[in-house]
Every structure is written in structure tokens, then in C-alpha cells.
Design brief:
Layout lengths: L1 H48 L1 H30 L3 H4 L6 H21 L10 H32 L12 H25 L6 H45 L5
Helix pairs in contact: 1-2, 1-5, 1-6, 1-7, 2-4, 4-5, 5-6, 6-7
Length: about 250
């Protein structure tokens, strides 16, 4: 009887531990989603009103795109001599994703110049909505993976955490899909509200209105991403422990 009670207690403790980790991951994801919304929308506003900021970010996007393309080329060369089993970890190879993302970043750098209303007067604001969505996706990509790198660096210095928070390919793809979805919605809202053509004295009011739409998006997507990432991480940890101690299974 005592053994059964002890086993039930251990199971309950493990479940509570899992739930607390998922809740904490969801909470951190929600906070980071709000921060991402603030950074992306503030950058979009600056791109519309500041010429030097537009030139700087256009060149920055182009530079990052070239670096990612070079990394994709290096990955493709490395994968030629690697084991075939490693490439079966996901549907797309890392090199293909790097090529796609690098080209996307370079295209976003060109869009920084297209979206200047005093440089291209003939473009209607409705036609710019897809451009804002693409530009916002690139910005969100950079912010999200900057957060991921910071979290992984912090986790690596913590002895209580056995492995990085984002490590596997499926976790990386989860972050990428979340960044695409958040960035698309942020850019869509920004373009529909037409903040580019708003007078400067009304910019702060319209920016707060836009953020009131974007905050819930960041909270929901960020929380769901954090919870799903923790679930994937728990699965990889349990699989790793099973491989380490097969005799205990």
C-alpha cells in the first residue's frame, strides 16, 4: 500500500513539475511576444518617417541576407559529406531554409526603399500592405531568433538546465512559423491602419491604437509557442534519458 502511495506521489510531483514548466514557458513566451510587437512596430514607424533609418535598415537587411546565403552555401557543402540519416531529421534541409531566408532578407532590404512615400509617390497605401507584411516578417524573424539566442546563452550558463531551450530542428521550425505568423499580422495591421500617411501629431495616438491590436496577438502566439516548445523539449529529454539508460525501461 505504501509503495502504491509513493508511486502516485511521484507521478503527481512529475505532472506538477511539467505543468509548472509549461506555464512558465508560456508566460515567458507571452512577454517576449509583447516585446516583439513593440520592437517591430516601432521599427516600422521609424522606417516610414526617418530617411537615414530607412537606408540603414535597407543595407542591414541586405547584409544579413548575404551572410545567411553564405551560411546556407556552407551548410550545403557540409551536408555533402555528412551522413544521410542526419538529413532525415526534417522535411527541408538547413541549407534550403538558409537560402530561402537569405533571399527573403535581401528582398526586404529593397522594400525599405520602396516604402518611402516621398520617394515613390505613385504607390497607393493598399498596394503597400503586402510589402509591410513582408518587411514585418523579416523584422520579427530577427527579433525572435535574437531572443532565442539570448535564452540559449542564458540556459547554457545555468547548471540546472540540462540542454538548450531551443535545440532540435522541429523547435527551430516552430520559432520560424511563429515569427512568420506574428510578423505577417503585425505588418497587415500596420498597413491597414496606414500609419505611414498619418500626420506626426497623430502618430502617437495611431501607434497606441495599433499596439492595442498587436499586444493580444503577441501574447497568444508567444504563449502557445512557449508551451509547444517546452512540450517538444520534454519529449527530447525523455528520449535522451531512455537512450542513456535503456536497462531501466
Amino acid at each position: 500500500m505504501s509503495i502504491r502511495c509513493e508511486c502516485r506521489y511521484i507521478v503527481i510531483v512529475k505532472r506538477m513539475n511539467y505543468l509548472s514548466k509549461r506555464f512558465l514557458s508560456g508566460l515567458i513566451g507571452a512577454v517576449l511576444g509583447v516585446l516583439c510587437s513593440i520592437l517591430v512596430n516601432s521599427t516600422l514607424i521609424e522606417l516610414c518617417i526617418n530617411v537615414m533609418f530607412t537606408i540603414y535598415f535597407g543595407l542591414l537587411f541586405a547584409g544579413i541576407g548575404c551572410l545567411v546565403l553564405w551560411r546556407g552555401y556552407a551548410e550545403s557543402k557540409k551536408s555533402e559529406s555528412a551522413e544521410v540519416q542526419r538529413l532525415k531529421d526534417s522535411v527541408f534541409s538547413h541549407a534550403a531554409l538558409a537560402y530561402t531566408f537569405g533571399g527573403f532578407m535581401i528582398f526586404s532590404g529593397l522594400l525599405c526603399f520602396v516604402l518611402r512615400k516621398d520617394w515613390f509617390v505613385g504607390i497607393d497605401y493598399k498596394a503597400k500592405i503586402p510589402f509591410f507584411a513582408i518587411l514585418s516578417i523579416s523584422l520579427t524573424f530577427i527579433v525572435v531568433f535574437l531572443f532565442v539566442d539570448c535564452i540559449n546563452c542564458t540556459a547554457s550558463s545555468c547548471k540546472a538546465i540540462s540542454q538548450p531551450i531551443v535545440q532540435e530542428s522541429r523547435q527551430t521550425y516552430l520559432m520560424a512559423m511563429s515569427a512568420i505568423l506574428m510578423g505577417f499580422l503585425y505588418g497587415l495591421i500596420f498597413g491597414i491602419l496606414d500609419l505611414e500617411d498619418v500626420e506626426l501629431y497623430r502618430m502617437a495616438i495611431m501607434a497606441m491604437k495599433e499596439e492595442s491590436y498587436c499586444y493580444p496577438i503577441g501574447i497568444i502566439i508567444g504563449a502557445l509557442t512557449g508551451i509547444l516548445n517546452e512540450v517538444m523539449r520534454e519529449g527530447s529529454e525523455s528520449l535522451s534519458n531512455t537512450n542513456k539508460h535503456p536497462e531501466e525501461v
